[in-house]
Automatic annotation (TrEMBL):
Binds 2 iron ions per subunit. Pfam families: MIOX. InterPro entries: Inositol_oxygenase. Pathway: Polyol metabolism; myo-inositol degradation into D-glucuronate; D-glucuronate from myo-inositol: step 1/1. Its cofactor is Fe cation. Fe cation binds at H40, H65, D66, H138, H164, D197. One of its GO terms (cellular component) is cytoplasm. This is Inositol oxygenase.
Length: 229
């Protein structure tokens, strides 16, 4: 998947165009299905903006964190839900019991592979999450898009985008032995961000046209006009 989608040869479009494209996508794992995706993105971003007015990079991160879900869209190959949304976890080391539906991991051949089923597996303690292979999904795709298109967002923003579905880490504290010092600093921001993502969306409808100019100015600040996807 990383090889296929890392080519960035699907389409050229702006961040805002991708936000609008996401309105055609339904995420079956999202508890808030009664509003368009763009409203979820803006609700997350606006809630963060209210509490952290000076961290404009975090506002933009709230807006774009789920844009990788365009992988569900037919124009991106229409990947199945299980391959795009849901919790992520590392491969190449023992599956932690904090992973959702942990009992089913016993069916995975890696479970009994001595190279992969120890605490660190193929990694070393403190190696950094950058050096760990995490299961594919919308997080890693949007991270790749942002990085390959040379965003100027800080590393904490890229960390939030890349690991916001890594619930075993940020909800249960699993796999922390793989983290390096930069990861530990960035995790603080992910904990802050997570309060504004799932289950915390206000029922206040967002006036998209009213807030759009502000977010367009942030997109212009941190991204090129058109991105390769």
């Amino acid at each position: 998947m990383r090889e296929e989608y890392g080519k960035m040869d699907k389409v050229e479009m702006s961040i805002w165009e991708c936000c609008e494209l996401l309105n055609d996508v339904v995420d079956d794992s999202d508890p808030d299905l009664d509003e368009p995706q763009i409203e979820h993105l803006l609700q997350t971003a606006e809630a963060i903006r209210k509490d952290y007015p000076d961290e404009d990079w975090l506002h933009l991160t709230g807006l774009i964190h789920d844009l990788g879900k365009v992988l569900l869209h037919p124009s991106f190959g229409g990947l199945p839900q299980w391959a795009v949304v849901g919790d992520t976890f590392p491969l190449g080391c023992a599956f932690d019991e904090a992973n959702v539906h942990h009992k089913y991991f016993k069916e995975n051949p890696d479970y009994d592979n001595p190279a992969y089923n120890t605490k660190c597996g193929i990694y070393s303690e403190g190696c950094g999450l950058d050096n760990a292979l995490i299961s594919w999904g919308h997080d890693d795709y949007m991270y790749l898009v942002a990085k390959e298109n040379r965003t100027t967002l800080p590393s904490a923003a890229l960390f939030v985008i890349r690991y916001h579905s890594f619930y075993p880490l940020h909800r249960a504290g699993a796999y922390t032995h793989l983290m390096n010092e930069e990861d530990k600093e960035n995790l603080k921001w992910l904990h802050i961000f997570n309060k504004y993502d799932l289950y915390s969306k206000s029922k206040v409808r967002i006036d998209v046209e009213k807030v759009k100019p502000y977010y367009l100015s942030l997109i212009e600040k941190y991204f090129p006009e058109k991105l390769r996807w």
